[in-house]
Design goal:
By secondary structure, the chain is of the alpha/beta class. The protein contains 17 helices and twelve strands. The strands form two sheets. It has a nine-stranded mixed sheet with strand order 1-2-6-5-4-3-7-8-9, sandwiched between helices. The radius of gyration is 21 Å and the shape is globular.
């Protein structure tokens, strides 16, 4: 990932013939035959180990994870994209990425009504079992995250920067709450700053993770419409809330409806369209609640105290990876044995 001129498609093409270990063992001539540019070959000959050490230090911190496209925790819907991110950096609950999600996006400068609508739809969809996914931007994105969090629901924020920083900076507290009660995700490594070309790439992940995308308010030319068109290309359902023909913020949504997006007035409109996915949510929760604890889960549960227990402590005690523990803790949370608390900790409740 840190090698210059190796993007998603080249990375994935290389993985078809080589493991990363095998690739590093090849000669410069083989790298050239594989189509790598001179700057990539030079970087592979002499990697910047200082920046790799910095990445590893970030990964060693509580709640920080890295998922490869070959990992069983990699979200299956994302693999369907023509250019899925080979690596996903995650802060928070990795297990949420594979649960059924609805993305909510819209204007960065919405009306008060638009923010309230996004907040209420996020609340309602959370209560139906969906994870609410958005981009942590000002306006509709923030209202959507907050709506899910207000009812104890799960939310995922997909970032256009490295996860060691928050953009916009004013959402630092919101990002902290999302990490504690959900997850932040990025394909960009730590240290990556906000750049204009990062956000369309970020948007394809927002839609790619989700079964459906809801656009609340959007001007005729906006990033939300780009995300909606990406969703259509990814065969995702697109929903739009209509508005007055005199409201500039409704023109994008009205245009989407003309192009075939489903007009939405209530949460039920979305559930009817996503009936198959709604059933998937029900089945997933039922299976989790009804399953008996296996020995490994019981052992992990016994390590969680009735006072806050950090995932770092559990990693040390169990010897398991953060990814495996996050998945097991999610199941135990669904079964009602424990709950997540601030700071990435867990408390046993029965």
């Amino acid at each position: 990932m840190r090698t210059p001129a190796i993007g998603c498609r080249t990375f994935l093409r290389l993985l078809q013939t080589h493991t990363p270990e095998q690739l590093f063992a090849e000669s410069a001539q083989t790298w050239a035959r594989l189509g790598l540019k001179n700057e990539s070959i030079d970087a592979l000959k002499k990697p910047d180990w200082a920046i790799i050490d910095s990445d590893l230090e970030w990964l060693a911190q509580t709640n920080n994870s890295l998922i490869t496209i070959q990992d069983e925790l990699y979200p299956p819907l994302l693999k369907e994209l023509p250019d899925p991110p080979p690596l996903l950096f995650v802060r928070g609950n990795v297990g949420l990425l594979s649960l059924p999600q609805i993305a909510i996006v819209g204007s960065r400068n919405p009306s008060t009504s638009g923010k309230d609508t996004a907040f209420e739809f996020a609340k309602s969809l959370s209560r139906c079992g969906f994870v609410i996914t958005s981009g942590l931007a000002l306006g509709i994105d923030a209202a959507s995250h907050q709506g899910a969090l207000s009812v104890g629901g799960w939310t995922i924020a997909v970032a256009g920067t490295g996860l060691d920083r928050v953009y916009p900076a004013r959402h630092k507290d919101l990002a902290t709450e999302i990490v504690n009660k959900g997850a932040m995700v990025s394909e960009f490594p730590p240290g990556t700053t906000a750049k204009a070309n990062h956000f369309p790439r970020r948007n394809r992940i927002i839609s790619g993770l989700s079964q459906g995308l809801l656009v609340v308010e959007a001007a005729k030319q906006s990033g939300s419409l780009i995300t909606a068109r990406m969703a259509l290309e990814q065969n995702r359902e697109v929903f739009a809330i209509p508005g007055s023909i005199h409201n500039p913020l409704a023109r994008g949504c009205n245009a989407l409806i003309r192009e075939g997006a489903k007009l939405v007035e209530t949460t039920q409109d979305i559930l009817e369209e996503l009936n198959q996915y709604n059933q998937q949510v029900d089945n997933l929760i039922i299976e989790a609640v009804q399953s008996m604890l296996d020995l490994e889960q019981q052992t992990l549960l016994n390590r969680v105290m009735f006072s806050p227990t950090s995932i770092d402590e559990l990693v040390i005690e169990s010897g398991q990876s953060v990814e495996i523990l996050s998945s097991m803790l999610l199941i135990l949370e669904l079964q009602g044995y424990l709950e997540a608390t601030a700071g990435g900790c867990y408390v046993r409740i029965k």
